Amino acid sequence: MKVQGLILVAAALLAPFLWWTSIAQGRDGVALFSQYLGLMALIAMAFSHLIATRWPGVEMVFGPMDQSYRLHKWLGIGAMVAILLHDTIDAEMRGLGRETALVELAETLGEISLYGLLILVVITIATFIPYHLWKWTHRFIGIFFLFGAFHYLFILKPFKNGDPLGLYMYVVCGIGTLAYFWTSAPRGWRPRRKYEIAKITSYGDAIAVDLAPKGRPLRHRAGQFAFFRFSGANLNEPHPFTISSAPEITGALRLTVAPLGDLTARVSRALAEGQAVEVDGPYGHFGRAKGPQVWIGAGIGITPFVALAQALPKDTPPVTLIYCLRDSADAPHLAELQAIAADNAAFELILWISPERGRLSAKALSETLPDLGNRKVLFCGPTTMQRALSRDLPAEGVPQRNFHFEAFEIRTGIGIRRFAEWLWQRREERKA
């Protein structure tokens, strides 16, 4: 993610300290710290809602959408931690005024916001809960943000809403509220491109879906993704898919879907020609690397590289695509990639069939491509493979800055499963 986005978030979180010296005089330091934690939670949640809008400036400030969504997740988790600490540490101060019915209501809504957000954050990081159920509950986060904002506005605090810090927090709450209402607005109010399914091609369990525009088409770059809503298949929630075709003058799009999760399995079963599709995007900066490159596409991770290969100029520096798969019989877009390799001397295609050659590793990649250290490596595929390559490629002469990967996941955990696996492995090692 972009440094300026992180700096902006850090500056916004620290901004209350501009007025802290005057506020802190004669106050209980512990209670004041608890008050600050409450402000920090609101600021973090406002940024999280802002990123969720996917407004055009979001990627410009915070980085490609895959990275912005990781920041979105951690802002939400950080806000939850701050709220828990705020609730645990006594924030009450003497001499701030008399409690009224409005103050009591604000306190009640603050409690509701705390427990509601806690439940929703647990649902978010518990990735075994089906995607469509998580997506349905996730929309309530904005409601609990509004409860939290009401709690802040009318609770007794060591400054007034008209003071500089109060005005600053008005802006924060306003941005978060506006962002929430935007993401919750009826779909007709938000810009969408309308398409229709023109053709469906099967590749074993995967399908390629060709879309024809019904009106003004989407303009994208090779390697980008978009959010697709398949209304005709009763799939009301939009889901991100990489566009697996290069930009065309006609505006036609193609996406390739494999049944890897709850929603993608439903999509692959429910689609049919003639169904309406709404498209929001495009997003992402994947594939912008310059110079000699190695592309690694594992399984359905081949999709961005199909579009990039279609758009590859013939006078480009050499590009080698490693297509990792288990069986070439039903490999998506294999014939298409072979035709591009036959027509473009700058593009080389290598099939890496794991039952025959084993799983691709950094060492095996270096042995296959002796000039690996002089190339940039682009990867799209399983997270476990990405982590292994990221860890081992520097030993083969590829620095971290030359390893690029598509990290977009609309929903991720926080590493609990990996931590449990590590503990189990340590336990088994001690037994041995």
From TrEMBL:
CDD domains: FNR_like_3. Its cofactor is FAD. Keywords: 2Fe-2S, FAD, Flavoprotein, Iron, Iron-sulfur, Membrane, Metal-binding, Oxidoreductase, Transmembrane, Transmembrane helix. It is found in: Membrane. GO terms for cellular component: membrane. The chain crosses the membrane at residues 36-53, 112-133, 140-159, 165-183. It is a multi-pass membrane protein. It holds the Pfam family FAD_binding_8. InterPro entries: FAD-bd_8 (IPR013112), FAD-bd_FR_type (IPR017927), Fe3_Rdtase_TM_dom (IPR013130), FNR_nucleotide-bd (IPR039261), MRET (IPR050415), OxRdtase_FAD/NAD-bd (IPR001433), Riboflavin_synthase-like_b-brl (IPR017938). PANTHER family: 1,2-PHENYLACETYL-COA EPOXIDASE, SUBUNIT E, NADH OXIDOREDUCTASE HCR. This is Putative ferric reductase.
